[in-house]
Write a structure and sequence with these properties.
- The protein has helices at residues 11-30, 57-65, 71-87, 92-109, 114-128, 134-146, 150-163, 170-180, 184-197, 201-213, 217-230, 234-250, 254-267, 272-284, 288-301, 305-317, 321-340, 346-356, 359-372, 376-388, 392-403, 414-426, 430-443, 451-462, and strands at 32-35, 38-41.
- By secondary structure, the protein is mainly α.
- Among the domains are: 60-165, Serine Threonine Protein Phosphatase 5, Tetratricopeptide repeat (Alpha Horseshoe), CATH 1.25.40; 367-462, Alpha Horseshoe (Serine Threonine Protein Phosphatase 5, Tetratricopeptide repeat).
- Strand 1 (32-35) and strand 2 form a beta hairpin.
Length: 478
């Protein structure tokens, strides 16, 4: 019987076969399965939805976009990428991301212990993928900036940009490297290339930093306002508000600065630079108890040598030398810790030694720093150290570099003007000293809790300029 049915199928038998097969066809098309008596529908014809973003995704986006990342997001990204390289030791991209995240974490926490880990991860990435590894090169540039090794940052940044000229996140790294080296012209040219091809909050913030360094304060303030308004993530907006607060303080408006700093801390509790800024502004507004409180909080969360110096000087101005000494000791310890992690804090140590330690040591340190990077801020610190060490004539040469736009210093910084005025007073150049000390107090009458009283005392000692009258023309001179 079965053999007789193997021939051509008639209409009726074919219909019966189609009917018998219908459940199979329906199950196949609908993607059904019966498991344990339960009908399970599997939509084979429907594409899967997008995968949920990983916990470290916000930090990854921030790093790739050249914008600040939140500390909790960075910690999650580090955990993810550390796990990835354990599973896939030859994953060059994950090694590069891990190294860059370590560098940013160390910068945000002022903890140089992260920097050797960052370097190891980034160099592992280059060893795994030695060719066309732009992400690792850019990561090494970011690490060098965190360590304040600006020559290395320039080398790595230029190598990364040569590989991928259209990768815009490399441009801010190079701008910072050129600025740290005192090469304002290269910084401006790089900014022009960036703004010609890219816009947005991160670009505006980078432009503001260049404008500030060139003395274009109004342009810098406008760019920062636009950057903060356009920022999406809280940590990014907080970083731009901190920069706006710093600019407002430098322009002599501590009230506006305080509002910016407070909003930055509200958005990102880990924004320690803004906390230190609050201390600076509160001290200027005559609220020392509050200033000390927020300064201590900033220093506890980010033991940055600069904050230790500022807090120590505030204690000293309040007649509390023992408290000041504790912070100065912390500064020395943090500088040693930074050196162990490959970071350069010679500038802040030189400033400290010039005013509170050994000026001769400050001169030696700052001469070496000047050879490494002839930047305006180093010229100012070296000129002041030379003056404090009894070499005011040579100190004036560096003070001119730090304050004269023609010779490289166009920031109109109140501290640099104060230093120049005090050096000129020592050299008997009373007119110039009076002019520059007055200019320092005009730019920012709150620039330093110790420097402001000294500037005012020097001006009182100089007195009013002599009244020489109007020169008379000779009667026959026409």
């Amino acid at each position: 019987m079965e053999n007789q049915q193997e021939g051509p199928v008639g209409p009726e038998s074919g219909w019966k076969r189609r009917v018998r097969s219908r459940p199979v066809l329906i199950a196949s098309v609908a993607g059904c399965a019966v498991l344990g008596g339960v009908l399970v529908l599997v939509p084979w014809d429907r594409p899967a939805g997008p995968a949920a973003p990983s916990p470290g995704a916000p930090a990854m986006v921030a790093l790739d976009s050249g914008v600040p990342a939140g500390l909790p997001d960075l910690a999650k990204l580090i955990e993810e990428r550390a796990g990835a390289v354990r599973e896939r030791p030859r994953d060059a991209a994950s090694w590069a991301v891990l190294g860059t995240a370590y560098a940013e974490q160390g910068r945000r926490l002022a903890d140089p212990a992260y920097y050797p880990r960052a370097e190891k991860a980034l160099r592992t990435s280059l060893r795994v993928r030695p060719q066309r590894n732009t992400r690792a090169l850019a990561g090494l540039a970011a690490l060098s900036l965190a360590r304040r090794d600006f020559p290395a940052a320039r080398r790595w940044g230029e190598a990364a940009l040569e590989l991928e000229p259209r990768r815009w996140a490399t441009y801010p790294l190079l701008i910072d490297a050129y600025t740290g080296l005192g090469d304002q012209n290269s910084a401006k040219r790089t900014l022009d290339r960036l703004t010609a091809s890219r816009s947005g909050p991160a670009v505006l913030a980078r432009a503001a930093a260049v404008y500030r360094d060139r003395g274009w304060r109004e342009d810098a303030a406008a760019s920062l306002a636009d950057a903060a308004a356009g920022a999406r993530a809280p940590a990014e907006r907080a970083a731009y508000l901190e920069q706006a607060g710093q600019l407002a303080f430098e322009r002599g408006d501590p009230g506006v600065a305080l509002r910016h700093f407070r909003e930055a801390v509200r958005l990102d509790a880990d924004q320690r630079a803004a906390q230190a800024g609050q201390g600076r502004a509160l001290a200027a507004l005559g609220r020392p108890t509050e200033a000390l409180s927020v300064y201590r909080a900033a220093l506890a969360g980010q033991p940055c040598p600069r904050y230790a110096l500022e807090l120590g000087e505030l204690y000293e101005s309040l007649g509390m030398p023992e408290e000041a000494r504790v912070r100065y000791d912390l500064l020395r310890e943090r500088v040693r810790h930074a050196a162990a992690g490959g970071a350069d804090e010679e500038l802040v140590l030189g400033r400290f030694e010039a005013d509170h330690g050994d000026p001769g040591t400050a001169v030696r340190r700052l001469r070496a720093e000047w050879r490494r990077r002839p930047a305006t801020e180093v010229a100012d610190a070296l000129g002041w150290a030379l003056h404090r060490a009894g070499e005011s004539a040579e100190g004036l040469r560096f003070a001119l570099v730090a304050t004269d736009p023609v010779r490289g210093g166009g920031t109109k910084d109140a501290v640099a003007m104060y230093h120049r005025g005090m050096i000129e007073r020592e050299l008997g150049r009373d007119g110039a000293a009076r002019r520059h000390l007055t200019e320092a107090l005009r730019i920012n009458p709150h620039f330093s809790p110790l420097g402001v009283p000294a500037a005012r005392a020097a001006l009182r000692a100089l007195g009013e300029p002599p009244d020489e009258g109007v020169p008379q023309l000779d009667g026959g001179a026409g």
